Amino acid sequence: MQIKGVYAIVLFTVKNRFVNVDPHKFHGKDIPHIKLDPKMTIEDLVDVFASSGYNGRQLGDAAKLYAKMIEDDATICLTVSGAMTPVGFGGIIKTLIERGFVDWIVTTGANVYHEDHFAWGLPVKQGSFDVDDMKLYENEIVRIRDVYIKFKETLEAEDMLIQNMFEEFPDRPFTTAEFCNMMGKNSKEKAKHPEKSFITTAYEYDVPVYISTIKDSSLALNLAVHRLKGKVYSLDFVREIIEQAAILYGSKKSGILELGGGVPKNTAQQTGPMLDQILKRNDGGQDYVIQITDARPDTGGLSGATLQEGKSWGKVQDAHHGMVTVYADATIAFPILALYVLSNQKKRKPKRLYKQLGKLYEKLSDDYFKSPVNKASRLKKKS
Fold first, then answer.
1. How far is residue 234's CA from residue 329's CA, in Å, rounded to a whole number?
2. DSSP state of 274
3. What three-state secondary structure class fits 353?
4. Which of 61, 204, 288, 292 could, after both became Cys, cross-link 322 (CB 3.0–4.6 A)?
5. Please, are residues 307 and 316 in contact by the beta-carbon 8 Å criterion?
6. Do 107 and 209 contact (CB within 8 A), yes or no?
7. Is 15 a catalytic residue?
């Protein structure tokens, strides 16, 4: 139903199922007088969140929606903005990949670069945010909020590893998924602790990892050494845009779990407009999206843009179904979501999308040229 131009539909969870009801009526679950028990499980805690209000309720609903995505065998994309791996969260991503709960990833170059430190045993330590950065600089310590990284022992050592890897990189256009796959293979075969990297796990499970803005990271900075020696690199960013759309196109159900916003968020969400706006498919966007963000929507930035707004672009299938936004710090909310599904969802068979990218690309390409709109366009050009 529609009231004053606004659809009077809201998502409620009833016995772990999502139902749509009119929010202008007095119904819904009773708010409990919450009791905590030392014997409670993560599932019990999520139920407490889901039965409460504010962002606690959103967090509970998000955890249950993530479980639904898994139950529905949706193709799940994880987007990770900022720098989550320096605080060790790559280990959580690794576990989700191993359980089949993440099928492809879009992240920043920082997350890939810093994750590799753990594989090679390069030092990363807890530090302090209340510090004199002039003194840290003198002591050759780099700071990410309250995480310390050694300049020579970690950053310069990592730079050499990446530079050496790039010497072996094929002299042809490449995608960032190919780059990450090669990096995972390299660390798997040579690193001291290959089990301590979600990039190596992504390589093992054929999970494509795309870097949304590789030039905005130390990964690309290390290309400069070889470029100055005359080696030219060519990033095939258009191919990876098509590959990402092809993943959505080839999925019966599709969803995104977004940690933060930024370019990773938009990269995954723009798969819908790529299919519909550009390729004239009219297939729609994602079936499910969970967003964990601390950004405000009223500033006009993509990081804070509501998931409902994405419907106007064709980024999501429905503005009223399958979406939950949690306004919270992802370092707090993400482990709760992850542990919840790890506790109550059976392991899924990995989709191994990396090895299927070629076929998915060709399928989308073939169907594009077979579509009536493009057939008519080609005939008109010939005449």
1. 36
2. I
3. helix
4. 288
5. yes
6. yes
7. no
Q: Is the pTM of this model over 0.85?
A: yes
Q: Where are the domains of the chain?
A: 73-122+151-382
Q: Of 94, 150, 196, 315, which residue is the catalytic one?
A: 315
Fold of 73-122+151-382: Deoxyhypusine Synthase (3.40.910)
Q: Nearest CA to 108 among 133, 89, 129, 121? A: 89
What does DSSP say about strands 10-14 and 17-21: parallel, antiparallel, or unpaired?
antiparallel
- pLDDT in tens for each of the 383 residues of the chain? 333 444 434 455 555 556 667 778 887 788 999 999 999 999 999 999 999 999 999 999 999 999 999 999 999 999 999 999 999 999 999 999 999 999 999 999 999 999 999 999 999 999 999 999 999 999 999 999 999 999 999 999 999 999 999 887 777 899 999 999 999 999 999 999 999 999 999 999 999 999 999 999 999 999 999 999 988 889 999 999 999 999 999 999 999 999 999 999 999 999 999 999 999 998 879 999 999 999 988 888 889 888 888 899 999 998 888 999 999 999 999 999 999 999 999 999 999 999 999 999 999 999 999 977 665 554 444 44
Stated length of the chain:
383
